[in-house]
Amino acid sequence: MSRIIVISNRVSTGGGAHGGLATALHAALRENGGIWFGWSGERVEQFTGLINFQRENGVTTATVDLDDHDIEEYYNGYANRTLWPLFHYRIDLAEYERDFAGGYQRTNKRFADTVSPLIEPEDLVWVHDYHMFPLGAELRKRGVRNRIGFFLHIPWPPRRLLVTLPEAEELVKALLAYDLIGFHTPEWVESFCDYVCHELGGTLEGGNELVLGKRRVRLIACPIGIDAAEFAKLTESDTARQTFERVRESVVGRALIVGVDRLDYSKGLEERFLGYERFLTDNPEERKEVVLLQIAPPSRASVDSYQRIRSTLEGLAGRINGAHAALDWVPIRYVNQGYPRDVLAGVYRASKIGLVTPLRDGMNLVAKEYVAAQDPEDPGVLILSRFAGAAEQMPDALLVNPYSAEEMSDAIRQALIMPREERIRRWETLIRDVQEQDVVWWRTQFTEALKAVPERAR
User: Fold this and answer.
1) Which of the residues are catalytic?
2) Residue 16: its pLDDT value, please?
3) Gap between the Cα atoms of 42 and 50, Å rounded
4) Residue 11: half-sphere exposure toward Cβ, Cα within 13 Å
5) Tens digits of residue pLDDT in 271-310
6) Rounded to whole angstroms, how far apart are CA atoms 262 and 269?
7) Rounded distance between C-alpha atoms, residue 5 and residue 14, angstroms
8) Is the CATH number 3.40.50.2000 carried by domain 4-225+440-457?
């Protein structure tokens, strides 16, 4: 049985609470053996390549520290100020700096130097996300002939946007060193093929294999899921039950609308607040019957665009509350901190509406967690952006254009008055898909496809 070598920017340890991706990868590593390699999150004065090995709950992790130069150029710079905004269709926010691009390449070379000696001949290598586009090519340069797969957890942008990146051709050619490339949706697959075929002269054969010169790369659309059974079980925990009761009591009989998002411009939080404000304005007779709880833990605080969005949202929340609040009611509860998953399970179950309205998202697992947490006898309603990757799997949600305040306002009203029978019917379809295409299904689909790559493609 082949070991699995998982490589990602950050590494989740075996202990403590973690999300669906970490759960799936831990399970794969326990079943097959192997190592999860990546950055420790720590910084040192000078990069040494010294590996810190740990083993916990049957999972071996191998992490390295990065120096300030790497963190600023590779992580804060190219990954989060160049690639992230571009791949979320925000070329107005993307920063194209040669130093960023150089640091990104340098750090990926350092990762390749460090991890390649750990890879044994029959290992499957699984690289994750936009931080590590060039890693497969760097491993090939170091003689790694193993099957290497890559999975992108964010959208792949259309060709007309990608060509704005000075290093686009170099990065895409580096990706062709992988044997299998996975995306969440067929749309992202099509966008990737469009660039390779029209900009590089590649061809698509058999519907799922790109050919460029001597390289053949298989493509797969494979939407990630959650551990639906585990998350539903969380709603039965003491913490979730206590949270449910406390939240329900705090809204005093009003309908709770919940949003849970990392503080990021791709999540559409400003547009969400404006859509909710439109609902309050358009429905004065119902406005005091609802409360919006927006949980938005901060991230990447050192990046200017994230500081700006936090300031904007604080101003919007204050303005909306100032204009609409009463002595006994505040329309928005805006919370800048994160909560454990069992607490969130209780919040989701207490909420009549789950508001998941990113402007662009690779998948968005909050939508699936909200569905998994519902009471089958009295489920809430999911309002979901049609621009989230999850929308393709979840057509029975109320799909909205997050840029339209009117459309969001209408969806909130529709969810509030939706008959219980319709809520149950929609939820039953949603939960069936969430359960069938869960995180284990996702991991199995990808790893089996990687194992099936023929020797000739290597």
Assistant:
1) 153, 361
2) 45
3) 12
4) 27
5) 999 999 999 999 998 888 999 999 998 876 666 767 788 8
6) 10
7) 15
8) yes
